[in-house]
Write a structure and sequence with these properties.
About 20% of the residues are buried. By secondary structure, the protein is of the alpha+beta class. A 6-stranded mixed β-sheet has the order 2-1-6-5-4-3. The protein has a single domain, classed as Nuclear Transport Factor 2, Chain: A (Roll), CATH 3.10.450. Helix 1 runs antiparallel to helix 2.
Amino acid sequence: MNTFTAITKNILLLACLTVTAYAATAQQEEAAVIATVQNAYVEGFQNLGGREMMEAGFHPTFVMVLNRGGELTDLPLSRMIEIVERRQSNPDYKHVEVEARILDVDVTGNAAMVKLELYREGRLLFTDYLGLYKFDDGWKIFNKLYHQH
C-alpha cells in the first residue's frame, strides 16, 4: 500500500468515527430534551406531578403565551405551579391523565424546539411548541405556545 492510499484510508476512518460520534451525541441530546419535556411538562404539569418535577425541568423565567381571541397574555411558571397545587389539594377535582405524542424534536447546539400533541381519553386537545435551552444543569423549558383543538 502506498503512502497516499494509507493517508486516504486514515482520513476516511477518522471522518467516519467523527460522524458516528456526532450522531451518538445528537441522539443523547434529543433523548435528554424528550426526557425533560416528559418529566417536567407532561408528568409535572399536565398530569399534576407537582412543583418539584416542574422546577427541575422549567427555567424560572418560563412563560406560556396564550392567544385568546387574538389577545396575547402570558402565564408564568409560578402561576402554573399554583394551578397544579390547587388541583392537587382539591378533593373534588377529577384528574384524567394526559398522553403526549412527540411529533418533532429539533436540537441545534444548546437550543431545542419540541412539537407535541396532548390527548385525553384518546381525544386531541392541544398541539404544543416548547422551546428549551441547555444549561450546566441540563435542558430547561423556557417558553410554550400552543393551538387548542
